[in-house]
Predict the structure.
Amino acid sequence: MYPTVADVLTLPVIREGFATVVAGAGGLDRRVRWVHIAEIADIAPLLGGGELVLTTGIALPDDADALRRYVAELAAVGVVGVVVELVRHWHRELPDALMEAADDHDLPLITLSRETRFVAVTEAVVGLIVAAQVAELRAAERVHETFTALTVAGAEPAEVLREVARASGLPVVLETLGHDVLAYDAAGTDPRELVADWATRSRAVTVDARTSYHEQAGWLVTVVGARGNDWGRLVLVCPSEPQHRQVVIAERAASALAVHRLVARDREGLERHAHRTLLTELLGSTTTAVDLAARASALGVPLQRRQLLGVSVRPSMTTQTATASWPTMATQEVLRDLAEATALAARRARVAALVGVVDDISVRALLPLTPQADADAVLGRLSKEIHQAAASAPKALPVIVAVGTTVDAVSDARRTMVEAAHVAKAALRSPDGRQYHRLDDVRLRGLLHLLADDDRVTAFAARELGPLLARDAAQAGRLIEALRNFCEHGGNKSAAAAAAHMSRTAYYQQLARVEQVLGVSLDDPESVLSLYVALLVREIND
C-alpha cells in the first residue's frame, strides 16, 4: 500500500535536489508510511515507525559516538530512511561515523546537495502515499465485486480458486481441517510439486488468527467456515510478505467458499439433511444410544434388535482419474451426488439405511439388518447397486465401498462406522476390483490403519527406518525406495531391480548399503517383515 524509499527517490522534487544514496542502500525497498521533518538529535521517541526523516543536520552532533547512537535509535523505532540537506551543517559529505552506522543498520542515508524546500518534499511524498492507498483501495473494491459476483452465482470451489490464482498470481490450495486437499489451482506452477506430501507439510503450519502469514512456510492461511463451524483452510503459497490486496483476495475467497458450502447444504433434500445430522452426532458422540435409536426409527430406519453395519463410500483413484486434477474432484457437489446414489442403491437393494455426507472425502451409511438377514448377500446386492448408481450419477466416478465389523448394540454403531472409514482408506492404497471391502480384505494394511493414531506404532516405524531416512536426507539418496521395492516384490531382487529401473549390480549395491545403514540382514525374514510393516506405517501416516 505504501511507496518504497526507492520510489520516493524518483520524485522530481528529490531529483532536483541532486539526491545521492551514500549509505544503507540495502534498505531501499522499505515502505514509507509518512514523512517527518526533524532537526533535533533525540527525535526517535517521538516517531512511530515507517517515517522518512528530513533534516538539514543543523542540530545534529559532530561527535562520532553520538551520530552512531542517533542512527541506532532511528533504526530501532522503525525509521525507513534519512534525507540530509548538505547546505547548513555539512557541505560536501557526511561524517564517516554517520554513514558507517547507516550501513550497519541498512538504513538508507540520502544527501541533497542543493537547497530543497522540505515542505515540497513532504507534499510530494504524501501525494505518492495517498495515490498508492487509493490504488490499493480500488483494487480491493474490484476484488470484493469479483468474489461477490462469484458468491451470488453459486460458483463451485474450483472456479473460486481459479479466480484466486488469477487475481493474486499465487498457487492456492483448499484443504480440510484434517489436511486433505479438496481443490487447488497451481497458477501455472507444477501441480505435483504443489501438493506433494501436502498433509505432512500442512500439519507443521499452525496459525493463531483467522488470517495469518506463516513466514517459515511462505503460506498465507485463511480459515474457511461460517456460523461458527470452521471446516477448512485456504492456503496461498506466498514466498514473501503478502500484499494487502492478496490478503483481501484470500479472505473474500474464504467467504465465498463458506457461503457455497452453506448453500450446497441447503440444496440437500430434507431426508439427506436429517440423515447427515444424525450421523454427524453419532460420529461425534454427541447423542445417546437411546436418542439415536428413537430418532433413526422416526426416519424409518429401526436400529434396535438389528445387525448394524457401518459403510463408507469414497471416490476411487483409477488409471483414468489419477491425474494432477484429482483432488479437485472430491467436491461437496460430487459427494452430494454420491450420497443420493448411495441412498438410491439402498432402496433398490431393499435395505433401510442412514446415508449422509459428514466430511469432505466420503459418504457414510449405517445399515440395520434383521437378525436373520445374510449380511454378505445384502452387502453384495447393495455394493452392486452403489457402483451402478455412482456410475450413473451426474458426475460419474468409480468408488470404493468399505464395510465395518457387524455389531449388535446401538452403542457400538460408531465403532463399525469408524472402522469402515479406516478400511476405505486402506483399500484406496491398493484397490483390487472387489465390490466391497471388509477388514480382512485389506489385511495387514487395514490393521495398521486402525492403529495409525497409536504413538507406539509410529515410534516403531521411526526406530526401524530412522537411520535410513536420515541417510537419504543428508545425501539426497533413494535407499528407502530401494528397500520398498525389495519388500513389495517379496524379496525377489531381480524383480525389485526391474521395478526400480536399475541394473541388478547397481541395485544390489543399494541393498548392501541399506543393510549397512540399518545394521540388519535382508536375508532374515523377520527383519524384512519388520521393515515392511514400518514402511506401511510411514505410508499410512503420510
Q: What stands out?
A: Residues 318-329 have pLDDT under 50 and may be disordered.
